[in-house]
Amino acid sequence: MGYTIEDLMSSSQDKYEITFVAGQKGWANSISWILLIEDINALRNFKGKDLAITTGFGFDKESKLLALVSLLVKLRASGLI
Asked: What is this structure's pTM?
């Protein structure tokens, strides 16, 4: 199965003060790759089971961030940080 969101949270939650805010059904999602996303165009390299990481800099409006989340769901992302 590989490394999962649960593994990530277990090993990093206290150290980095990560809070799990949504998507509890995805707790067992496996992570095959990590992709830094600051622009929606970066998703053309998305393969599924990728963990998307963003600072949010490229998604300065709530509507842009919600569009990103919606697209990540369709692409079967492991999660979003």
From this structure: 0.84
Integer angstrom CA distances of residue 7 from 1, 3, 42, 46: 11, 6, 26, 22
pLDDT digits (tens, 9 = 90+) for 9-58: 999 888 988 888 888 888 899 999 999 999 888 888 888 899 999 999 98
The answer to whether 55 touches 38, Cβ cutoff 8 Å, is yes
pLDDT band at 62 (very low <50, low <70, confident <90, very high): very high
Q: Give the CA count within 13 Å in the CB-facing half-sphere of 31.
A: 17
Contacts of 65 (CB under 8 A, 6+ apart): 56, 59
CA distance 39 to 8: 24
Residue 37 is classified by DSSP as -
What does the alpha-carbon distance between residue 46 and residue 77 come to, in Å, rounded to a whole number?
8
